[in-house]
């Protein structure tokens, strides 16, 4: 029997077990619910290695290849390999024949590094796998090194999985996301039957129709319970995610960057590294997965210097006004000043000047690339407006779209070769614009200089960084596909800007939600989740978003009514209650409101300010009462060093309840809050500005009167198991409750 070593990593709720031997890639034994005794105590792990415990059927190879961390093509592995490579059509088969590992433990993170060699294919692979023992987040990335002698053909890399992971064989469904502009994060559920479930994006960004992440669900998985897996690729460009049912009945998960033919070619001695796969598994359903992802995202956020040397931490997320749906391209300084004055008066803290401030930008046909103020609209530049905004007590923010150029711009007229185009093929514009070749140093220098001048000359504290088209004709200077180099160039430029201006916050926007991922997270502090400000559409978008990223980085605005993207009309309380779920803002012309409406909006802004520290730093749960009522709940952050039991105690909870469609039952289903501790007693009261305003036919409902009066109390057990009776709300009504431990 071959000698193998069992390697194991244990988190708070999950464990990983691998079998290592020095002559092959490590074999996966387990990734799932936490094993409370060491795996070594379990007889099968020590008595039998993986091969000894597998039967071989007569017509198969006597060598049966189980799932490893890096499965190669063609030598007993008949499913999707973890890498697809060749040298001028040769050396495509891979089977590692030497391996060594290192194990380390720094802080909360346990790391395994696997050094794998295939001396025949002449490649080396380094896999880094680390588990955060507090958050259960597993990170994986892979480096491929071409070790062939000088003078041999380069190694073409068609596919290199960031990670290859086993899923519980019981996983029966994968939940991913589809959508389009202004309607992202629509949930898709596909059965995991035979064969391969796979989604790719080739748009050079995640796209509205994809998100680089999904959940694998067991039959027991729901929002609150059951073994659930989550995976996400931390990369802002192309991606592939696949789950495959293996011939042995198991399931493998692979994620990585989708590569165009010829895009990555390694000369002798060269290497490439994948983006990071961020994965987790939780016995507490998709909410458990979300909480792990939120912790990971928060660890990546940088609030000041990128190296963290200034110790900057998150400030309260300021209330925004964004000018886009208020005035579009129609910039008039006196209107903007009036808008700013009236916004400040209702409690707005940051004024963001959207598209339309630079030359020739009276619509979206021209101007991108010419990053200086339009002398007609702003004869003295942007500084006077920015200073006025500051005088009113707000920060000034500015919209830019650096990666793009309109053919009708000075930049394009001077440098037509800077745009991604293919000689001989027709120019393909999208929103009348082309994409710059972000891998070029001269392009980066130009953009850095323009942004630097803006940020130096004007007191700009925030950039809304947009990206309004897919990449096509993505061929770089050397004639190779340039998706990867463009995404990297985007990061490089962000790093330069953040390094020069560490206290300028940046928002990632791509026509709303087409570039949302953890790859860009070290450089940005906010995402524009969607171009829709329709509150009903936003509920779905925001639930998808917060499955992966925390509320404080999710831009959420009270938009105009009727909504510009859908034409639907929603009352202010509903629009405001939906925007409370994230980083709150306003995106309509507040000058059109009368005094009563303004003071109503101001009360919602006050509510946001009073709960943002809970919503933005703590734990989040999503829930569904049934019959068209959904909720979001937020508890203050816990001490991560607390014991497992202490860590779960909910002392305060903010619950936002939304009725989406008209009531279908005489009684609304109760609000069950499974995160509450049975033995605790909670006071429940309504805290939104509508409190005291009677819902539809609720007057005889005594419990609700107590909730409105703040005198209602119940045990955690009752609230978790039986639930809080809810009033009859009309469609598109919302309320906010606060629970406090008595
Ligand atoms: C994109 C953004 C919008 C707005 C416009 C401006 O569509 O998503 O929020 O900034 O561009 O052109």
What class, by secondary structure content? alpha+beta
Strand tally is: 37
Beta-strand content = 25-35%
- What is the molecular shape? globular
User: How is the main sheet built?
Assistant: 10 strands, antiparallel
Ligand set: alpha-D-galactopyranose
Instruction: Tell me, rounded to a whole number, the average pLDDT.
Output: 95
CA-CA gap between termini: 61 Å
Unreliable stretches (pLDDT < 50, length at least 5) are none
Number of helices: 14
What is the percent of helical residues?
Answer: 10-25%
Rg on CA atoms, Å: 27 Å
Could you explain how this protein is built, in words?
- With about 750 residues, this protein is an alpha+beta fold.
- Helices cover about 20% and strands about 30% of the residues.
- It contains 14 helices and 37 strands.
- A hairpin with a 3-residue loop joins strand 1 and strand 2.
- Helix 7 runs parallel beside helix 8, helix 9 packs parallel to helix 10 and helix 10 packs parallel to helix 11.
- The chain is globular.
- It starts with a strand and ends with a strand.
- The model has no long low-confidence stretch (mean pLDDT about 95).
- The protein binds alpha-D-galactopyranose.
- The site of alpha-D-galactopyranose has 12 residues, from loops.
């Amino acid at each position: 029997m071959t000698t193998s070593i069992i390697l194991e990593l244990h988190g708070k709720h999950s464990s990983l077990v691998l079998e290592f031997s020095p002559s092959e890639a490590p074999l996966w034994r387990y990734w799932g619910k936490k094993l409370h005794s060491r795996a070594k105590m379990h007889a099968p792990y020590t008595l039998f290695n993986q091969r000894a415990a597998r039967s071989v059927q007569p017509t198969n190879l006597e060598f049966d290849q189980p799932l490893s961390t890096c499965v190669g093509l063609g030598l007993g592995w008949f499913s999707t390999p973890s890498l697809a490579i060749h040298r001028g059509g040769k050396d495509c088969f891979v089977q590692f024949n030497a391996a060594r590992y290192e194990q380390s433990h720094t802080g909360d993170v346990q790391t395994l590094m696997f050094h794998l060699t295939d001396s025949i294919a002449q490649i080396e692979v380094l896999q880094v796998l680390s588990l955060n023992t507090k958050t259960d987040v597993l990170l994986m990335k892979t480096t491929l090194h071409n070790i062939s002698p000088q003078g041999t053909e380069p190694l073409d890399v068609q596919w290199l999985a960031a990670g290859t992971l086993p899923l519980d064989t019981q996983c029966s469904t994968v939940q991913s996301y589809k959508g389009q502009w202004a309607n992202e994060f629509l949930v898709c559920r596909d059965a995991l039957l035979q064969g391969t479930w796979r989604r790719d994006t080739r748009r050079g960004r995640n796209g509205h129709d994809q998100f680089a992440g999904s959940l694998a669900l067991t039959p027991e998985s729901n929002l609150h319970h059951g073994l659930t897996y989550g995976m996400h690729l931390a990369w802002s460009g192309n991606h592939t995610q696949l789950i495959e049912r293996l011939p042995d009945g198991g399931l493998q998960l692979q994620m990585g960057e989708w590569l165009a033919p010829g895009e990555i070619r390694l000369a002798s001695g060269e290497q490439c590294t994948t983006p990071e796969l961020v994965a987790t598994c939780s016995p507490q359903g998709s909410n458990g997965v979300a909480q792990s992802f939120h912790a990971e995202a928060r660890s990546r956020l940088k609030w000041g210097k990128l190296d963290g040397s200034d110790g900057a931490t998150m400030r309260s997320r300021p209330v925004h006004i964004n000018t886009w749906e208020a005035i579009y391209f129609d910039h008039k300084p006196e209107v903007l000043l009036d808008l700013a004055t009236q916004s400040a008066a209702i409690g707005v803290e940051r004024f963001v000047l959207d598209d339309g401030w630079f030359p020739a930008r009276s619509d979206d046909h021209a101007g991108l690339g010419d990053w200086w103020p339009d002398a007609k609209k702003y004869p003295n530049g942007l500084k006077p407006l920015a200073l006025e905004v500051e005088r009113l007590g707000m920060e000034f923010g500015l919209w830019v779209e650096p990666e793009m150029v309109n053919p009708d711009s000075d930049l394009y007229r001077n440098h037509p070769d800077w745009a991604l185009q293919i000689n001989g093929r027709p120019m393909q514009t999208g929103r009348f614009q082309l994409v710059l070749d972000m891998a070029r140093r001269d392009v980066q220098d130009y953009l850095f200089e323009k942004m630097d001048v803006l940020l130096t000359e004007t007191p700009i504290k925030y950039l809304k960084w947009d990206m309004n088209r897919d990449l096509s004709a993505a061929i770089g200077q050397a004639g190779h596909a340039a998706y990867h180099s463009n995404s990297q160039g985007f990061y490089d430029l962000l790093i330069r800007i953040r390094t020069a201006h560490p206290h300028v916050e940046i928002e990632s926007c791509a026509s709303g939600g087409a570039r949302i991922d953890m790859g860009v997270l070290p450089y940005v502090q906010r995402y524009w989740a969607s171009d829709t400000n329709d509150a009903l559409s936003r509920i779905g978008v925001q639930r998808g978003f917060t499955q992966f990223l925390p509320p404080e980085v999710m831009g959420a605005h009270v938009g105009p009514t009727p909504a510009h993207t859908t034409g639907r009309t929603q009352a202010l309380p509903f629009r405001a209650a939906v925007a409370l779920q994230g980083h709150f803002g306003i995106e309509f012309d507040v000058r059109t409101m009368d005094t009563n409406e303004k003071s109503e909006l101001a009360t919602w802004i006050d509510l946001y300010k009073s709960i943002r520290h809970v919503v933005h730093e703590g734990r989040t749960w999503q829930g569904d009462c049934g019959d068209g009522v959904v909720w979001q709940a937020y508890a203050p952050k816990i001490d991560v060093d607390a014991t497992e039991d202490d860590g779960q105690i909910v002392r305060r909870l903010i619950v936002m309840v939304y009725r989406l469609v008209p009531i279908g039952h005489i009684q609304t289903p109760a609000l069950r809050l499974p995160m509450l501790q049975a033995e605790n007693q909670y006071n429940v009261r309504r805290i939104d500005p509508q409190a005291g305003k009677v819902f539809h036919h609720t007057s005889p409902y005594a419990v609700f009167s107590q909730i409105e009066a703040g005198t209602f109390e119940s045990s955690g057990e009752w609230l978790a198991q039986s639930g809080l009776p809810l009033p009859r709300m009309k469609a598109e009504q919302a309320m906010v409750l606060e629970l406090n431990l008595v």
